[in-house]
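Assemble and predict.
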Amino acid sequence: MLSIAASELIQIFRNRLVLVTSLIIPVAVCLFFVRQHETFADIGSLGYIAAVVMFTIAAFGLYATAVTTLASRRQNLFLKRLRSTAASDTGILAGLLLPVTVIAVVQVTAILIALAVVAGKPANIALLVVATVATLAMMIGLALATAGLTNSPEHAQVTTLPVTLGVIFVATWVGITGTADLAWLKRLLPGGAATELTMNAWNGGVAVTESLALLAPTLAWVAIAVALANRLFRWEPRR
Amino acid sequence: MSTTPVIEVDRLNLTYGDFHAVRDLSFEVRPGELYALLGTNGAGKTSTLEVIEGHRGPTSGTVRVFGNSPRDRRAVRPRMGVMLQESGFSPDLTVRESVRLIGRLSGRTDDVDRVLDIVDLTDRAGRRVSQLSGGEKRRLDFATAVYGTPELIFLDEPTTGLDIQTRDAVWATVDRLRENGATIVLTTHYLEEAQQRADRIGLMHQGTLHREGTVAELTRTLPAVIRFSLPAPAPALPLQAAVDADGKVVVETFGLQKDLHLLLGWAQDHAIELQGLEAGPTRLDDVFRAISS
C-alpha cells in the first residue's frame, strides 16, 4: 500500500493540472476567507469560516482530485495493472487515496491554525478534529461512488459538480442561517450536520453530547457512499 | 518435478449478458510446459485468460492455479508474472519507477537494473512512460512479468509491435526462464512463434477448445502440400492436383515423400522445371483456416 501511495505522490507532483486544481486553488480560496475573516464572521460566525474552509478543501482538494485520479488510473488501465499483482483491492484503493487525503488533512490543519492565529482559538479542538475526520471520510466515500460513474478525467469535471457545489451550498446555507429553522432538512443534507458540528466546535456554547449526535447523519452519509461505491465502482474501463 | 498441473480449468463457462463467451472449457497446463492458447478473434481466449489470471470470476466451472483459486492474490500472484495485452502503466512515472512499483507489489524480489537490462531498457530507465514507443512499452510490460523470475508467466501477445532483434531477445529470456523450470502460457497472432515454441497448443473457436495437442498432432490431421508453377504447355501430371488463385499447382497429400519423389521423377523425365517449388507439412495457419472455414 505504501509503495502505491509513494508512486501516487510522485504522480501528483508531476502533473501540473492536478497540482494547481487540488493544491493551490483551494488554498487560495481558503486564504481569502481567513484574510477577510472579520467580514465573514459578521455574515455568519468564525465557525462558519472554519466549516467553509474545511469543505472547500474537502470538496475541491480531496473529493474532486480523488475522482479525477481514480478515473484516470482506470482509463489508462493502471488499476488493472495494480490488480494483477499481489496487492489487495482495499490496499490498492488505500494506496491511491492516501496521498490526497494526507495533503487535505495538512491543508485543513494549516488553514484552521492560521484562522486560530488571526481570530482566536476554537472552543473545542477535539470536537473540531472529529468533525474534520468525519467530513473527510464522507468525501472519500462519495469520491469512490462518483468514480464509478466517471469514465475519464475530463468527465470528472462534470460528474463532480453536483457534490462539490452541493456541499459548498449546504455549508454556506447552514453556516449563515444556522439550524433554527428547517433543522431536520439541513442536518440530513450531506455536509449539513458536519457544518453545524464544526461551528459548535469552533464557536462553543453547545453541549458536547448534543454536538456528537450530529455525527450520526455524517456517518450515515459515509455508509451510503460506501454502499454506493460497492455497487458503482469499476476497476476496468467499459468496452 | 511435480506433475500436478500448474493450471486446471474444468468446465469453465463465462457469459456476458446473452453472450456465451466461453463454453464448457476444460484443459490443463503442466509444470514446465509452454502452452499456447490460440484462436480466431472473439474465440474466447482473452476471456479465458482473464479468469485464469484472476481478473474475472467464472460464470460456472472451476479454475485452479497452483491448486488455489486465481482470485486468491496473496497465494497465487507472487508465483506468477503477467504480461497484459494493453500496457496499463502510469504515463507520469519513469520506466525504473514503474518496474520497481509493479515488481515490489508482485511480492517477489529482484534487482530493477537487472530486469531493465534483460529488456534493453537501461538507457530509458529515467524516462517517463509517456515518452516510450509502443515496442518499448511492450518491453516494459515484459520486464514486470519476469521480475523476480516467477514460476508461471502469462504472455498475452508478447511480441506484437516488436522489431526482430527485440523479439529474439524476448524469446531468449523466455528460453532461459524455461530452462529454470518456468511454465509459460502464451497467446499470439504469430502462428510461427507458437509452431516453433509451444509444447502444446489449445485451439479455441467460438468459446470452446476446438483442438488440443502438440503441433505435430494438430497438423497431422491435415494433408501436406506441394506447390509449384508449370510452364505451359505441359504434359499431364502423374498425380491429382488443383490450380490455386495465383495459377500455382497445388498437390495435397498424406504421402509427401512418395508423391514428391513421383513428381520429381516425372519432371526429370519430361525435362520440366518446377518453378517456385515448395513442399512441406501443413502449417498451423492451415489448421486455423480449416477451423474458421
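The mean pLDDT of chain A is 92.
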